[in-house]
Amino acid sequence: MNFHTKPIQFVGHVKIKVEKLERAINFYKDVLGFGILEKMKREVKLTTDGKTSILSLVQPEDIIPKQGRTTGLYHFAILLPTKADLANIVVRLTENNIRFGASDHLVSEAIYLHDPDGNEIEIYIDRSPSEWRWEHDEVAMAVVPLNFEQLLTHVTPEKWKAMPKETIMGHIHLHVSELKKTEVFYVNGLGFDVVNRFGRQALFLSSGKYHHHIGVNTWNGEGAPPPSTNSVGLEHFTLVFGSEEDRMKVVTNIKELGADVTEVNGTYITFDPSGIKIVLSI
User: Fold this and answer.
1) Which of 33, 134, 153, 161 has its Cβ near the most Cβ atoms within 10 Å?
2) pLDDT given for residue 167 in this prediction
3) pLDDT at 257 over 90
4) Tens digits of residue pLDDT in 115-142
């Protein structure tokens, strides 16, 4: 089953702020293998298929370095199509002396790294949904060591040159200031289901029984403040809905919760209880 196509709602695009746009472009293009779909003076739209953008980089005029212990981006997650792709990018990063971590989450296998500005990136593959273990509408996930010996048996003779065209934005994980209001907003407002409660400090939410499209945590501290608007980090992320009817239902639900939704030229924008900007798209 494809968990990133309509009518399932999913994260379609992420926009992050960087200090030096050209430096960031070099990293995402030359090291990770993204293509450039459109380049402007202070912004670039990146692509994997040459048609759509799943990631944008922007350099605000008054940009400041990434602020710690705030809400916002924990990581955005790039979903690769095959295990060979994950193995090949591990070799690519190693050859370029890029430091990275790794985990086996039972539902997926992942590596983690930072871009030159400190924005965290997850690059992962999903295990077959038939291997996911569900109990009482919660999916089992864990953080255990990744078996690199087994992974690297999938390396192919062709060196990593570019992100495969089937690569998509798999999910986003956010630092939030608290969980109670956050859960109400994402469940009753945006229409996601809680599929895993990771202790008392993190929630994982999804649509259509995916392991998660959105993760939220309070690991930067309960009551963590939002970063300055000109800080390196998340500018916004985009949720894609199955239809205009689905989107308008969400708009109504958000307003009933007392949150604001702004419409600008057919685009709807809202903010979660931690001040994180979300674009509602179809």
Assistant:
1) 33
2) 98
3) yes
4) 999 999 999 999 999 999 999 999 999 9
Dihedral sign for Cα 92, 126, 199, 234, please.
positive
Q: Evaluate if pTM is beyond 0.85.
A: yes
Asked if residues 273 and 176 have their Cβ atoms less than 8 Å apart, the reply is: yes
- C-alpha angle 14-18-19 in degrees, rounded to nearest 5: 175
Q: Is pLDDT above 70 for 179?
A: yes
Tell me the one-letter amino acid at 195.
V
Residue recorded with tokens 């690199």: 148
Nearest to 168 by CA among 48, 73, 3, 51: 48
| Confidence band, pLDDT 50/70/90 cuts, at residue 24 | very high
Secondary structure class of 204 (helix, strand, coil): strand
Any idea where the domains of the chain sit in the sequence? 10-281
Neighbouring-strand partners of residue 126: 108
Cα(92)–Cα(80) distance, integer angstroms: 14
pLDDT at 207 over 80: yes
First to last CA, the chain: 20
Q: Which fold has domain 10-281?
A: 2,3-Dihydroxybiphenyl 1,2-Dioxygenase; domain 1 (3.10.180)
Strands (DSSP E) found in the chain = 10-17, 35-39, 43-47, 53-58, 72-79, 101-104, 108-114, 120-126, 134-135, 138-139, 168-175, 193-198, 202-206, 214-217, 233-240, 261-264, 267-271, 277-281
Average pLDDT on 154-159 reads 93
